Amino acid sequence: VQNLLSKIYGATNPFWNFPYMCCIAEMGDWKPKVVVWENVKGVLDRNVMPIFNHYLQEMTKLGYSNSFDVLNAMDFGIPQSRDRVFCISILGGATFDFSKLEKQPMRHISEFLELNVTDERYMVNIPSMLNRLKDLATPEQIDAAKKKHRFVETITDYCTTITERQDRCPNAGVVKVADKKYRYLTEREVWRLMGFDDADFDLMLQEFPMKKGLRNATLYALAGNSIVVQILEAIFKVILNEDYATSFITDKTGQLQLIC
């Protein structure tokens, strides 16, 4: 999609970096009433902010009021330090109030980890990764490497940001199995730490089955590129409670249906 849009709008035009915004522009009167946009915290960096500002300006031209904030999964019950920028755009004059989000105490990482993981595929045995484990490094090594690279943390109360892969630095952290023995988070664990139920994971496992002796790169990538479920639920709850240009109807069974 982005390759096509770059040809239409020009590769140097920041507009094409937001494909769905291009789709909204082409929809005419049939615009979505609420648009939820999520990205890494880096979009607020000085060298990237002009592109984000361009997005906000274009959404304003399309008739939307924009609000954005940085939300961390730890504030919504999930033991993952994951900062993400959320921008909520509402068609018309209403603005989203982030202060109304219901936050939850962080649960301990132990509630999300599988017990007795011994499969060799999850053990950290690559020299390049072993050399990055903070637990195994001396204070002198850590200090000497400050300007060169980061170290992989051992998970205690929570993990760091889950990304597409676990076998690289930085990653979400590793679990200590025994003295000087560590393992990666499993596919099921990273899905749990993105807020998904095991039933959700099992459905995806049917679509992307495991291969003998190998970690499932697809399931890791899908989790790392996802959005924490509990944050989305909190956002949707505010949208519904505040009735941001939404309405309800009742069908013949008496069930409520949301019309956006």
Structural notes for this entry:
The chain is built from nine helices and nine strands. It has 260 residues and is of the alpha+beta class. The chain has two domains: 137 residues, no CATH class; 116 residues, DNA Methylase, Chain A, domain 2 (Alpha-Beta Complex). It has a three-stranded antiparallel sheet with strand order 1-4-2, covered by helices on one side. The N terminus is likely disordered.
Series of H and E elements: HHEHEEEHHEEEHHHHEE
Q: How many β strands by DSSP?
A: 9
Largest sheet, strands/sense/barrel: 3 strands, antiparallel
Distance between the termini: 25 Å
Count of discrete alpha- or pi-helical segments spanning 4 or more residues? 9
Mean pLDDT: 87
Q: Shape from CA axes?
A: globular
**Major beta sheet, strand line-up:** 1-4-2
Structural class: alpha+beta
How much beta, percentage-wise? 15-25%
The unreliable regions are 1-16
Q: How many structurally independent domains?
A: 2
Helix content: 25-40%
Radius of gyration: 21 Å
